Amino acid sequence: MVALLLPSLAFLLAFFIAPFVMVAFASLQDKTGAWSLANYARASSDLFYWRTLLLTFRISLWTTLVAFAIGYPLAYYITLVVKNRAIRRLFYIIVVTPLFTSSVVRSFGWMVLLGRRGLVNDALVASGLVDRPLPLMFSEAAVVIGLSYIMTPFMVLTVSSVLQNIDRSLAEAAEDLGASRLVTFLTVTFPLSLPGVIAGSLIVFTLSVSAYVTPSIMSGGKQVVMSMLIFQQYGSVFDFNFGATLAVALLVTTLILVAGYLLAIERRPRAGREVA
Amino acid sequence: MIGRMGFAVLLGVAVMVPGVAPAAAQGLTAAYYGGSWGEAIHKCIVEPFTKQAGIAVTPEPGVSSVTIAKLQQQKGHPAIDVAWMDGGISELAAAEDLVAPVDPKAVPNVADMIPEGVYHKPDGSIYALSTGFYALGIIYNTKEVKNPPSSWWDLWNSDYSGAVTVPSPTNAMGVPFIVEIAKLSGGGVDNVDPAMKKLKTLKVSSFFDTSGGADNSFQSGEAIIGAHYAQAGWALADKGLPIGYAVPKEGALGGDIRIHIVKGTSKLAEAEKFMNYAVSKDAATCMTDFLYVGPATKGVAPTEKARQRLPWGPNGSVKNLALSDWNKINAARAKITEMFNRDVVGR
Predict the structure, then answer these.
(1) Which of A31, A132, A138, A159 to mutate to probe the B interface, most B CBs <10 Å?
(2) Pick from B258, B239, B245, B265: nearest CA to B314
(3) Which residue among A116, A221, A238 sits closest to B207, beta carbon to beta carbon?
């Protein structure tokens, strides 16, 4: 067993642990290379960085909720409603297609839709719902829209992989015993699919927290998330030490949030136990 | 399932692709940009040089901030022999002793350059040569903006409220732009408060990080006026968009791309030859015609189209550009960036 683990351990060590340790060391040094906690003092004593962290998490949370709201019904439909295997495969291909386009192209594509003279505004103005085009682009909402679009496939894939492994006789038994389809869904299917929802929401949330290209384009620089601050420190200010501090702070707070989320789910009885 | 399989395939590929060794063959390795700038350097300098001198040049593509990071890592044993970096980064590279002094005897074309294009260290030695000036001026939509703008303050005109774009501090000209606004409102590089106050009242559509981001804003009509690169504006106009470029009366903000010889290169003689060609009249003329950059080499006669599109205007010279004191800007960059994040973005 241990031998089987070795390649993945080596991979983690080389491409995650080693670079992370280097970043962590850099975060604990000042510009002269001397050990210092000054970077952490600077980041934690300044409300601006806390507000940025909060904004980052708020955007990621909204993205997770939207990805769930769109992704779950989609996954349900693909796995449990569509009977034809070929059509099901086609759906999977459609769902993953966006992942093959670069996020730069995808984000600029949104401008065509959400811009002042984009399709959405044209339709709203033409239908008389609004007098003048709405500022849809370059806002917090735009970042959430852009990220949700990119993240929904991850939710669909994780949820549907769990849904298709649920024993269908369980739902049939519930219906035989007189439960309506809604009650069957709420008491049997949905609880059994929770592991997929949990895995999907973790993937979506953590990817959203670290996303750079989409927030940077969709916010139009009017909202700054942590990844943009980190990039600024590395790419334009050249303060690698403070950039490292912000990166470590983001990773640690995200880990704490994820741990808290998993702990809260563990504490709840029932949730996901049956499948595990 | 597909996601997991895709990931496994990716992992496999990542593990199997061996590390690419730095080019050790004969010939030079030159770090320069991608995109249209890289194309111009390749067509105007690299190709004709190789044809003439018989020395192969391997490109090492990257933006200036990535190039300087590579030079820092390779200090002492560089795999790059010649490097292009923008003004601003160039000063940092010189201060960190990453670039070699240029000997005017080995690079005789230095004698035919304008003084603004030759960069000296405090000890008098030359550390960089300009291969073209670019400008950040006012780009505007000629259909939406009736009166051609003439001053930076036209960006504050309420007619353009919500449809303005200016560079963020992440962009190469972002901090210089903030400093220029500070200077024009009674401050300066050491006192940018007046600029922050002004920028807070500017009703922007976006602050752009990359030149491409601003291009898209103008293309989609999100922005109708803004502080943007002249060269990018002309490229949009060439696509048939109603885009014009105006030099503000306070002066367009100038920057340049510069060539450096990397300190410790094992091919100093070849690198000097290459640099000499890069600043020659032929190369500079080609760069001007191709990119509309302002030549740093004297005696360049551009085509009429290129002359009309020079960053300093058809009849100007480098004196019409507001050039930044990059050492001062670099020293204040962290503070200005933080103030901008806090006061202008986080308002």
Answers:
(1) A138
(2) B245
(3) A221
Question: Is B209–A108 a contact, with Cβ atoms under 8 angstroms apart?
Answer: no
Angstrom distance (rounded) from CA A69 to CA A48: 32
The Cα B3–Cα B7 span in angstroms is 6
Is position A191 within any domain?
Answer: yes
Write the CB contacts of B61 (distance below 8 Å, at least 6 apart in sequence). B31, B32, B33, B34, B38
Cα separation, B38 vs B113, whole angstroms: 22
In the structure encoding, which two tokens stand for residue A132, read together?
A: 């003048």
How many other CB atoms are there within 10 angstroms of residue B25's CB atom? 7
CB–CB of B231/B292 below 8 Å? yes
The mean per-residue pLDDT over the stretch A58-75 comes to 97
Q: Cβ of A152: how many Cβ atoms within 10 Å?
A: 24
What is the mean predicted confidence (pLDDT) over A147-162? 95
How many Å lie between the alpha carbon of B77 and the closest alpha carbon of chain A?
22
Nearest Cα of chain A lies from the Cα of B317 at a distance, in angstroms, of: 29
Nearest CA in chain A to B66: A235
What pLDDT is stored for residue A3 in this prediction?
Answer: 82
Q: Which chain A positions have a beta carbon within 8 Å of B255's beta carbon?
A: none
What is the distance in angstroms between the Cα of A264 and the nearest Cα belonging to chain B? 27
Structure tokens at B131: 């291969």
CB interface of A with B, residues 162-201, below 8 Å: none
Residue A273 lies in a domain: no
Q: Which residue has the tokens 């049956």?
A: A274
The answer to whether A116 faces chain B, any CB pair under 8 Å, is yes
Determine, for residues A222 and B204 on separate chains, whether the beta-carbon distance falls below 8 Å: yes
Tally of domains in chain B: 2
For residue B347, the model assigns a pLDDT of 53
Percent of chain A with pLDDT over 90: 70
The answer to whether A220 and A138 have CB atoms below 8 angstroms apart is yes
Say how many domains are in chain A: 1
Verify that B146 and B165 share a domain, yes or no: yes
**How far away is chain A from the Cα of B5, in angstroms, using its nearest Cα?**
11
Q: Is A39 on the interface with B (CB under 8 A)?
A: no
Cross-strand bridge partners of residue B28? B57
Nearest to B109 by CA among B280, B309, B317, B250: B280
Q: What pairing do the DSSP bridges indicate for beta strands B118-120 and B126-141?
A: antiparallel
Q: Which residues of chain B have pLDDT under 70?
A: 1-25, 346-347
Q: Are B296 and B116 in contact, with CB atoms under 8 Å apart?
A: yes
> CA-CA distance, A176 to A186, in Å (whole number)?
16
pLDDT band of residue A107 (cuts 50, 70, 90) is confident
Inside any domain, residue B36: yes
**What CATH number is attached to the domain comprising A218?**
1.10.3720.10
Residue B170 to residue A154, Cβ atoms within 8 A: no
Amino acid A269: pLDDT: 60
User: Is any Cβ of chain A less than 8 angstroms from the Cβ of B220?
Assistant: yes
Interface mutation target, options A232, A241, A242, A245, chain B, most CBs of B under 10 Å: A232
